[in-house]
Amino acid sequence: MATTNAYVHLLFLVIMTSGLSFHKAAGIETEKVALLKLKQGLLDPSRRLSSWVGDDCCKWRGVVCSNRTGHVIKLNLRSVEDDGIDGKFGGEISHSLLDLKYLNYLDLSMNNFEGTKIPKFFGSLKRLRYLNLSAASFSGRIPPQLGNLSRLIYLDLKEYFDLNAYSDESNQNDLQWISGLYSLRHLNLEGANLSRASAYWLQAVSMLPSLSELHLSSCGLSLLPPSLPSSNLTSLSVLVLSNNGFNSTTPQWLFQLRNLVHLDLSFDKLGGSILNAFPNSTSLEKLKKMGSLCKLKTLILSENDLNGEITELIDVLSGCNNSSLEHLNLGFNKLGGVLPNSIGILYNLQSLLLWENSFVGSIPISIGNLSNLKELYLSNNQMSGTIPETLGQLNELVAVDVSENSWEGVLTESHLSNLKHLKELAIFKFSLLPDQTLVINISSEWIPPFKLKYLSLRSCQVGPKFPAWLRNQNELNTLILRNTRISGTIPDWFLKLDLELEQLDLGYNQLSGRIPNSFKFSSQSSVYLIWNHFSGSLPLWSSNVSTLNLRNNSFSGPIPWDIGERMPMLTELDLSYNFLTGTLPVSIGNLYGLMTLSVSNNYLSGEIPELWELWDGVPNLLVHVDLSNNNFSGELPTSVGSLTLLIFLFLSNNYLSGEFPSALQNCTYLRNLDLGGNRFSGNIPAWIGQTMPSLLTLRLRTNLFNGSIPSQLCSLSSLHILDLAQNNLSGSIPSCLGNLSAMASEIELFRYESQLMVLTKGREDSYRNILYLVNSIDLSNNALSGGVPEGLTNLSFLGTLNLSINHLTGKIPDKIGSLQRLETLDLSRNQLSGPIPAGMASLTFLNHLNLSHNNLSGRIPTGNQLQALDDPSIYRDNPALCGRPITAKCPGDDETLNRPGGDDQDEDEDGAEVEMKWFYMSMGTGFVVGFWGVCGTLLIKESWSHAYFRLVYDIKEWLLLVIQLNLGRLQRKLNL
């Protein structure tokens, strides 16, 4: 009987096991069918799912099954970089996913679903613990059904949206749905539009008791609450709220999260002092004991408006028994004060980023204690003093940038001796002034223990020789030695390093000799050799160079005819201020990406070839063309009309001829146009006013233009320099020139850098960095007639007005005193009549005035600025004028009478004699004190003496260069 029961029991187990196996197999078959339906709906251009064949779906790519039950529990369809652009999934996500009953992990990130909405049925995948839809190019709002995933631990919706379809209001999300995610530990909604949740976002996330990591950067959250609504965020270790623009102070609750390890509040417009985050009643000692910040490893508060000193903050951070801080980024704020010595107690610090602030003083010596420091960025502050040698103790240091400070003293190999991991070193100032207070004095015999990739030394003394300690730096990809007083030639050992450079900048030195063609450059590389004495023919390097700037050297000979083929990647080509001859190569037209072309101040000749055509319907990218100060002749090629993106065009001082180039009508973005000093003729076209609405400067002086000044120029509301001088223009001056609003009010002109010759204060000067501040009208030396338009007096910000050498008649406008910013006024050599307006005395900025050779009459006004303008030649050849400073007296002026009484006269003479004696005694004493105060100091203090004579030497070298260039240009003109 017992045996029979045993057989029955065994039979029952077999039947039950078979049934379970049948159901298990049936379940797995259902999951396989579900996956195949999913595959059918997806777009898979790179056939990533080609392995989804056969009976065992657990072996398919991206599918993971349970070892115990065999059910699909994980589906990873994330696109990785190795898959390429075509490796991203798209198409439709099938509802068959719901048949994966045991799925707890779903990753569809980094794909391209082309703006389709996140499926609502995802909220029915009840077993999900991990969901990642980041950067998958969905659209629309986050479906609130996701709030049903009560088991979810990890949710990443970072930039889940399609960037091209996410700007409208339909994508604004709320956060009510997250209250059901009470198991959630990781939440990343970076980039999602949560503007609707600004008022309650903190309250919403506080309802998640297990939350340890929260990423809400760039979510449009405008409100940063001053206090926590509850204390449920005790588990929070990572908090990222960057780029929300809170525009508030730092709330106190942030630094009361005792488990916080990572805090990022960058780009949030936070203001006030950092210490606002601590309760006013909390002392530093109490803060240290609280240990609120002792677990903090990363603190990022960059790109805000924080001010005050950081001494107390550093004291708090360093007051922990074992500070965990590894990364401190306070860059791009308004912080000041000195860096405290206590910073050296942050022994675990790996990166210290304090750039773009207002810190003063020197680097604390205790910096040498930070043995784990890898990154040190102190650039763009107001620090000064010497760089401590303890910097050389940081043997883990990888990158150092202490640029744009006022360092002094000497930096030697002792500062760098132990930096065996150093890859980046930057010590520079953008200033080109000769007062280089920092000297890099490294022995030529020293061999560094590191291999630099990036070196930038600028406006500090490295020379006089090329630094020999670089001879083993064969991993350099960026070398900047600008304005470092290096002279001589580039050494042969440097060429033998066989570097492949991304940037080579040796500008503003005294380097000479020929440039070898053996340099190698990586893709999109830049070469700056400006302001040296390099000579010989132009070098041609690898096709990878994108920027080639060789201006202000002594290169000679022709521009290589095949430069366009040999260096096809050029986007910037500047060969100006050399001694180049020959013609402009036609191959330049093959530089499809060229944006800047400058060959000015050379001896190039011939006609400008037809360089600029459309390439398969793609317009030319040139925005800056400067061919000025050469010997080009003929007409401007019609292909210039294809430069539809052109902003700057300078063709001055050549021998170009023909009428105003009609092709320029297509250049609607032009801002600066200079055709001066040529032989252009005909009328100035009226279409300039319509087709060039953004024009800032128009310089057509010294040509052969005739006809009248078109009134359409008055519509150029941004024009601030108008120079039509030395032509054959006739007719009256358009009264509407008073409508040039850029000269009538202090409008916000964008700051731009461009070089232009402008006649001001009686001489022609070159303006570059401050050209945008110059407001000038010059119509001189033409045949203009009629009166001076009253409307010109509306231009209250006009700085120069020159109407000289014309045939103007009538009176000087009575409201001339309204030109309050006027510095130069020249109305000479006309037929103006009537009195000089009394209001002219109120022109307080006026420092150059010429009213000579007219028919003006009456008394010359006095007072204010006119008192200083006492040169009689200002009023020469105006017979009817009278009064100071000319000798002609006005009717009614009394003769100066001698005082009666010889005794008084004798007393005056005696007083004058005494005053003269004191004058000569004071002059002698002043000479002695001044002479020995300067020369004696130079004799006694050797360093000052060297600096002074070095300055004299540099000025001499600069003057010789200017004289050489001008003599060469004069010789060229005379020969022609």
Features:
31-stranded mixed β-sheet, globular, 16-stranded parallel β-sheet, 15% helix, 976 residues, alpha/beta, 59 strands, single chain
Given as residue ranges, the uncertain stretches (5+ residues, pLDDT < 50) are: 10-24, 896-915
What is the residue-averaged pLDDT? Answer: 85
Helix content bin: 10-25%
3D shape: globular
**Proportion of strand residues:** 15-25%
Query: What gap, in angstroms, lies between the N and C termini?
Result: 133 Å
Rg = 39 Å
Oligomerization = single chain
Secondary structure category: alpha/beta
**Number of E-state strands:** 59
Largest sheet data: 31 strands, mixed
Instruction: Note the total helix count.
Output: 10
Describe the fold and architecture.
- It is a single chain.
- This protein is of the alpha/beta class and 976 residues long.
- 15% of the residues lie in helices and 23% in strands.
- The strands form 7 sheets. It has a 31-stranded mixed beta sheet, with no helix packed on it. The protein has a 16-stranded parallel beta sheet with strand order 28-30-32-34-36-38-40-42-44-46-48-52-54-56-58-59, with no helix packed on it.
- The radius of gyration is 39 Å and the shape is globular.
